[in-house]
């Protein structure tokens, strides 16, 4: 009985034949499993891409621009147009109504503030009192310098410029004197200011001259009407204020100052 021993290795096999040992080289077989695994992995990756990016056409073709990668080629951002389904959640951002309402409320609040501060308000002109009356006698007439105090109030939130101020004095509906002032100092917002207005009244009527120069009358009172007009400007807006007031003036000798006779 013969005993054959066979030893195999990864590169060769030994056989005994006819009492002699023969060596036979055997080429190892490479497994095809890694290649199949790679194909399976590629197919799985392709399925994942198709799930994330649905087919572009009806025949199953993917997007021709991004080719299933989900990225736009560099340099073509301004040439390509994205098509988004109507049911895409990106078209319905959260809290949209809240943001729109807040924006509308903010705009309305700003408009109200602008209207509140820039809306024209009243500017009032108020005669306060007569400061002094200087009476000068001449043979034919009487000259009186009347000094009045007036108050101007500005209720606006912007300065008010007094463009022109006119005043005239009337006695028995007859104009006895006029005065005018231009480019007066502006009135600051939400403030009031007092001004001195001087007016010269010249009485030429013989009846009034005799009345004022009469020594038998102790109090020589004249009823003087003052008509004041003021033109103001603010916020590109022009306005005219008119005020009529009445004053009692003593034109007698007890309050006169001598005047040189011409």
UniProtKB/TrEMBL annotation:
GO cellular component: endomembrane system
Region spans: Disordered: 18-39
Domain of life of the source: Eukaryota
One Pfam family cited in the UniProt record for this chain: TMEM106_N
Start and end residues of each Transmembrane protein 106 N-terminal domain: 33-97
Extent of Basic and acidic residues compositional bias: 30-39
Annotated TM spans: 98-119
Transmembrane protein 106 C-terminal domain location: 120-256
Predominant cellular place of this UniProt entry's protein: membrane
Family designation: Belongs to the TMEM106 family.
Stated name of the protein: Transmembrane protein 106A
Species in which this protein is naturally found: Oryzias javanicus (Javanese ricefish)
């Amino acid at each position: 009985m013969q005993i054959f021993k066979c030893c195999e290795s990864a590169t060769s096999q030994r056989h005994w034949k006819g009492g002699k040992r023969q060596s036979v080289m055997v080429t190892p077989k490479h497994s095809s499993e890694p290649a199949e695994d790679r194909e399976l992995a590629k197919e799985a990756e392709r399925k994942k891409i198709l799930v994330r990016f649905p087919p572009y056409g009806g025949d199953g073709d993917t997007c021709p621009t991004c080719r299933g990668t989900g990225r736009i080629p560099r340099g073509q951002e301004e040439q390509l147009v994205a098509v988004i389904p109507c049911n895409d959640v990106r078209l319905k951002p959260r809290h949209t109504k809240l943001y729109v309402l807040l924006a509308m409320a903010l705009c309305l609040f700003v408009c109200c503030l602008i209207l509140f501060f820039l809306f024209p308000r009243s500017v009032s002109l108020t005669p306060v009192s007569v400061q002094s009356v200087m009476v000068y006698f001449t043979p034919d007439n009487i000259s009186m310098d009347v000094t009045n105090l007036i108050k101007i109030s500005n209720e606006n939130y912007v300065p008010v410029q007094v463009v022109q101020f006119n005043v005239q004095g009337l006695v028995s509906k007859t104009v006895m004197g006029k005065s005018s002032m231009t480019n007066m100092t502006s009135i600051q917002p939400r403030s009031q200011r007092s001004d001195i207005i001087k007016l010269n009244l010249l009485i030429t009527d013989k009846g009034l001259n005799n009345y004022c120069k009469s020594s038998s009358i102790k109090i020589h009172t004249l009823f003087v009407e003052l008509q004041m007009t003021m033109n103001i400007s603010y916020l590109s807006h022009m306005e005219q204020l008119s005020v009529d007031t009445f004053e009692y003036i003593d034109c007698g000798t007890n309050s006169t100052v001598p005047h040189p006779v011409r």
